[in-house]
Each structure stands twice: as structure tokens, then as C-alpha cells.
Amino acid sequence: MTGNPIDRRTMLRSAALLAATALAAACTPDPQPPATTTPGPQETPVPTTSSAVLLVFFSRAGENYWNGGRRDLEVGNTAVLATKIADRLGCDVYEIQAADPYPESYDETVARNVREQDDDARPEIAEPLPDVGGYDTVILASPIWNVRPPMIMSTFAEALDLTGKTILPVTTHAMSGLGRAPDVYAELAPTATIGEGLTIRGEEAADADTELDRWLSTKNLT
Question: Is residue 131 packed enough to be buried (19+ CB in 10 Å), middle (13-18) or exposed (0-12)?
Fold first, then answer.
């Protein structure tokens, strides 16, 4: 992964083709000792869109929750939703990838996430972080794991100066909606404005066009 926004949109469109054959499902947490290292040096992508929107997302494929059971996903639910957002906005995109990838197993992911939450961990991000200076709006998209965004989203939000930015939380979930996402981002970025978020059940992410379009319209992003 690189910080190049054009390459990222290309990646997302490829992900969308894979996602077309399977609906998306919401993920919950996992096991393995949490990484608590500091993100690497920042890259400096220049905003390429007049709307000055940066879409940041974290997603996990593999075994996911699905209507009370389990289903293996080639593309994670949040990636499916992020693809739709990027296609509509033509915005710059940064994918958060864990330096220590989360397991394919749903139960192992749940156990690891519990440990990371208990430790208030900051899992390391694999690639350099973007320069957010030129953006007015930052969309933070992730699953909800145990009622809040994965701890790696805290790594991202805490590492950057988001002063004056509007943060829009976007989540995929099994039953928790936005969970604590607005409160978490308000705590980590107290000088930013937290706008009204969007939440979609993971199983419904592939068919969320109407709800997504309505939300984007209310945010004046289309």
C-alpha cells in the first residue's frame, strides 16, 4: 500500500469487482499481542479534488459474522462501502493496513481486539500516514468491534493534527450502529468537528446505495 490517492482508488475499484459476488458482513474483534508502536513518517499526497475530502478506511476480509453465523469474505464490508463512497466522490483515499495483520479467523480476531481494547493499545499502521493539511473533511470508515472502532483507528486519529477538520464517522456493524465512534473521535481529536455519521449493517453494505446517497446529500458531498 502507498499513500498515492489515485492508486488507492484503483485498488478500491478492483475490490468492488470481487465484492460483487458476495454480500458484506460486519466484523467484531480478535487475538494476538497488540502492537503499540508509533506510525512511520508521513507522506505528503496533495489533495486532487475540489471538495478536499479524504476517505480513510480500515477493513478486514476473511471469516466474518453473517446473520448469526459466519461467512468468508474476499473483500471486507467496510472496503465494499468505501468503494461506493470513493466512486461517488472521486475523493482521495487512504487505506489503513495493520503492520501486524489481523487473523483470518473471526474468533481469533475477536480475542485480539478484546486484548487491544483492555490495553488501550495503538496497533501499528503498516504504511506512512498521509498529510491531511489540505483536506477540509476526513471520512473515517471502519467496522465496529465490541461497540467501538478497532483500536488501529485510534492510532490514526491520535497521530495526526485534525484541528479544524470535519470528521465524518462511517461504520459497518452487526448490531451496534455507530457504537462509540463519535465519542472516540471527539476524545482523540478534540479540536475537530465531529459530523453526523453513517452506519450500515455489514450484511447490507453491498446494497446500501440508497442510504449512502441520502447521507452524502445531507453532508453536501455530492
Answer: middle
All cell numbers assigned to 49:
479534488
CATH number at residue 9: 3.40.50.360
Q: Which positions of the chain have pLDDT values less than 70? A: 1-51
Would you state the pLDDT for residue 203?
97
Domain that holds residue 200: 5-218
Residue 12 identity (one-letter amino acid): L
Across the chain, what does the average pLDDT equal? 84
Q: What is the domain count for the chain? A: 1
As to burial, measured by CB atoms within 10 angstroms (0-12 exposed, 13-18 middle, 19+ buried), residue 99 is: middle
Of 143, 139, 141, residue with least CA distance to 109: 143
pLDDT value at position 196?
97
